[in-house]
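Hi, here's the filled form for the chain we discussed.

Project: internal
Contact: R.S.
Residues: 396
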Amino acid sequence: MKLGIRKLKISVVAAALAFMGFAACSGGDTDSLTIQVDYAHDEFAGSLFGFFPNQVTVNPGTTLKFRQTWTGEPHTVTLGTQVTELAKPFKELVDEVHKTGDVPEEPEGYQFFEEGLPSFFGATIGQAAAQPCYAKTVEEMPLDGTACPTKALQPFKGDEAYYSSGFIPFEGLKGNTFEIPIAEDANPGKYLYYCNAHAIPMSGYINVSDGEQSSQSELNRQAKVEADRTAKVLLETYKDEKAGKSKIKGNLAGSGDERTESAFGTVNEFTPRNIEANVGEKVTWTFIGYHTISFNVPPYAPVFKVAKNGKVSFNDELDQPAGGWPGRTPPTPDDFREEPPVVSIDAGTFDGSGGLKSSGTDWVTGDKYSVTFTKKGSYPYACIVHPGMIGKVVVK
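And the returned structure, exactly as it came back:
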């Protein structure tokens, strides 16, 4: 199984967000440096699973800021001596991803890396991974899904067993940001960090040094180079789809083909974005990947629910079909195929009323979903899994 195409059970906001470009990170503040988490490409809505750039040199006493571009994917910034130790057998994999932007096959023994650290995804969300966690020793690091005893992160010294942001939330005073203050007496060295939600290929290195540290302008330039490299095949495929060269014809809910299987990112687009139809005409979309077709979407729907005590949980309601529309027909008990057979679902008629109407999730590539519009007008729609994935049906 490829690390880049794991199916993660996530639910996300449906509002499009404006991209804060790398230029916004460049300032005169020499006491801090900014790394971009994920990336919003200027030619497509999507997610790039990386830290841009993936290497930074920082002096003790400087604050390292991680600024998340919210694309609908949860991310963490997770490091520590236990991360570095368990990652040693996979250094070649990490370096290859950093060099090419592609995700190779999962190496043998990788499960031992994951089993030795708190896990974000499972039957339920692992709280030591989803919430901030500061564990000085391995013994203080929970592996049973419970939260860390210590959630208040201290300045990073380099001798911590586990030091993690937890899920970087979209909203709140610190929404989309996580800061690591490098301690004045931090140990010089090269520290691997990664995203607990997307595994070790989404990673980077923090070089703590008393020498010359990176400049923000250098980081911005390198970030753009790395993001463009990761996005290259995704953009090529998306352009072909817009030109009608996709193997799947018609209206697409999602993007990708065999070329994008090793790309560590996704294009989250409806192609075409705008569809014209006549009253009484059935409009059909074909899914490529994990998306929804949703009308009358609320302005904000949280990805994960965060309780007052900090516990993080899935917002399962967003996974379900809504407004009386059908979801995907489940396979029969007699169907033992690895890949479920594609289905074609007719949601019936729609005049724009009735609140949220959504296909729900759990669709697979090739599944079709149809809606018949019975009234003239403009019908905006979105994927509630990925912000920025929006479209419009104009009915005449």
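Let me know if anything looks off before we file it.
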